[in-house]
Protein 1
Amino acid sequence: MSYGPNPWQQQNWDARAAGNFIGGGAGCGLLLFATLAGAGGTLRLLLIGAAVLLVGAGLLCVWAEIGRPWRAVNVMFNPHTSWMSREALLAPLLLGSAAASLWWPALQPLAALLAAGFLYCQARILQAAKGIPAWREPLTVPLLVATGVTEGAGLYWLAAPWFGQGSQGAWLAFGLLLLLRFAIGARWYRRLATQLRPAALSAVNQAGHGYNGGSLLPLAVVLVVLAAPLPPIAVAVLQALAGALAAAGGALFKLLLVTRAGFNQGFALPHIPVRGVRR
């Protein structure tokens, strides 16, 4: 690796770190959307269980990435300065309340509120990496939050049609989330395009395929379902397809953002010392 004025790709966070953002974001988004959409019966139990598993799997990914995993408890000790500490402190509360809501539905709104806080902490963790322009951009926070909620909405629609659930309002909300994610992502890219060096911008372009494809393709499906008279089985298949595309696109975006677009800024050398030459 060559350190110097040219940006270089960070090597500290790999696919396991990305797994935390993928699992945690999708799980929190699923819990939020399922709560707001009023999922009931067996579907509610399935979606909450899936949300708990996704968040737990994301935490296991980042735990596996730590060089000395049994020292992970140290992350709890700096909530006044670290968004990672805040995420870690919210995790047991989120998982506990979500699991308990399987038996006591009255706890589900609390679990959804904690999920929103957990998702926000995750977004701030990435944005706090000030040496990496693609991460530190302020729009990274709303983009990751919108991506997580949209992934969760996608997972909801992947399952809901087969249980005879999913209202017109929830379908419209899904379409609005897709549009919002695309709009924030496009603005995020335009801002970075004026700041990044060619190699870093190329990596951001690759990451952008995730939010572009994962937003525009399912949005087109949303419009088809709203506009065309289709038999119920076709509607169910298209809704599940749109949900899968939205979730997969968000996961791909976060994977590439962490593992490919994490270029350091590099540093400037305004005065290069030369032996034997006075300043």
Protein 2
Amino acid sequence: MLIAAIGAIAVGFAVISHSAGLQAEMGTYRTALKLTANVDPYQEITQEMLTPVEIPQKFFNENVFLENLEEVAEETGRTPVSATYLQKGALLQKSMVVAAPDLEQGERELAIMIDAETGVAGKVTRQSRVDVYAAFQPGDRQDACEIRVLSNIEVLDVGELGSEVDEETGGTNSVVPVTFRLTPEEALKLGHAEAFSSGVRLGLVSPEGGGDPGRQDYCSADQIAELEDQEGRPGNEPEAGDSAEQGADEETQESGN
């Protein structure tokens, strides 16, 4: 009995020591906000949709997580709304929240997630003018094409860096929400491109002006046509003098043999 009691005490001390070690390793805790409901794009986010959760300081990134929803309203003077569709249970990130649109009559504000490395690269900022390109993979009725969906449109805002899960690989990609000022027709084109293309890129337009944007699309069929044009150019065919000289050389070679 005495040995069992001593063993129990030793185990208790070991558990307490282990818990204290874990607590020291985690450090203090920070408060993050967790969504209690699904949120549609550009829907107002209210305190009723959020519940506070404690996260160890070790895993809390101040540049990613939002501790106080009122920060957005204080910085912009406008109502905080969702930048894209938000799922219940997600921790609220700064990139998920934008200020409510500030538009003129007839205009639309639309945000899409752009690859942070290939689509933005830190050069597209608020009030930049950009072209939007979408890549479509080959299908039963179409070739692989790169299409300029929109030309010389205004960027209203570029959000905070976030992450997005790649459905094909299961990995994560760095993405940035980019918000545009659009007409209803332009908003429809951009929404279609984001939904059905394999990727959307931005082309930064010169401050001096967009100039003539040229052709709107480039497809795999165009590559074949260009290759055929190059092979069929007169410059690539042997000239008459060259053919005669080549024939004389072949005859000389046969006579020598």
Protein 3
Amino acid sequence: MAQAPVLLTVGELATRGGVAVSALHYYESRGLIQSQRSGGNQRRYSKATLRRVAFIRAAQQLGVGLAEIGEALACLPAQRTPTKADWARLSTGWRAQIDARIAALQALRDRLDGCIGCGCLSLKACALYNPQDACAAQGSGAQRLLPPTAVAGQRRRRQA
């Protein structure tokens, strides 16, 4: 006689998956995970859902949005538990994107090392907010935030 599959309650899945119950409800509403309903209309999840929750959490830690996570999970087979090869194929597609994020974070870190404590607080000269001083020709201040008439008025006041 075949054993019935082990089903987890929403609380058990939340505890084992390291997420809040409300997060599981949200993931389900977005189609990232699926539940079955018990005779008492309570949610029940297969143990395979733990892998999906772990994948969602890992992807979110990497900065991947839920829409993109959903697209990736939609590629997994619905008729069977995903294998290691399925997960590897899924994560390989994100490799270039993750590498680009790592490079951008390293560049930001390296710029901050030289910037913290410099005291410039200058959007005109700051290499983080105004690379190559691109806004210097437009004048000082919040050139991109002010309407053109306000910028012209500032120039006239400086010249007077």
Protein 4
Amino acid sequence: MRFANILLILTLQFFATMAAADAGNVVEDTELRLDELFSQLRDADVENVYDIEWEIIDIWVHSGSAAMDLLLRRGQIAIEDQDYPKALEHLSALIDHAPEFAEGWNARATVYYLTDEYALAISDITQALILNPRHFGALNGLGLIFEELDNPKGAYKAYTMVRDLHPHFDNVNEALIALRPLIDGVEL
């Protein structure tokens, strides 16, 4: 009986090790795919840009956990319904259970932005960017907030970072053109 227990423990450890290795491979494969997509995004024709953008977003919105993805989706639906307290409830639960999932932070930042809670939005955007520095949506949100806070220099920097990642992102080039006269002569 003792041998059977040892064999069971060794078998479970083996499968746990294999599962961890597979999870590492999935993360590595995902990062390689994102690198490829961002390269394509920089070189894309306008016609192809939205397909590439949505493929990137599709990767970002999948946490690897069906339960966490469901919390994100419920939060997104509540945002669409303008039920911001419900959205905050779902997204805060998501962040509590999956603090390493950048999209949870970004989605909650959106709610804070929509409810004019800019300091909280900036805090969540910061966390999203720590976890996913290429999150062009979070950077765009930061630019919007800086514009609302009458900080053209901050907005210009954020939008420039968006443009560097995603040259065709909606309205970013127009925002940069509009902000340029406000920052001429200001060191960036």
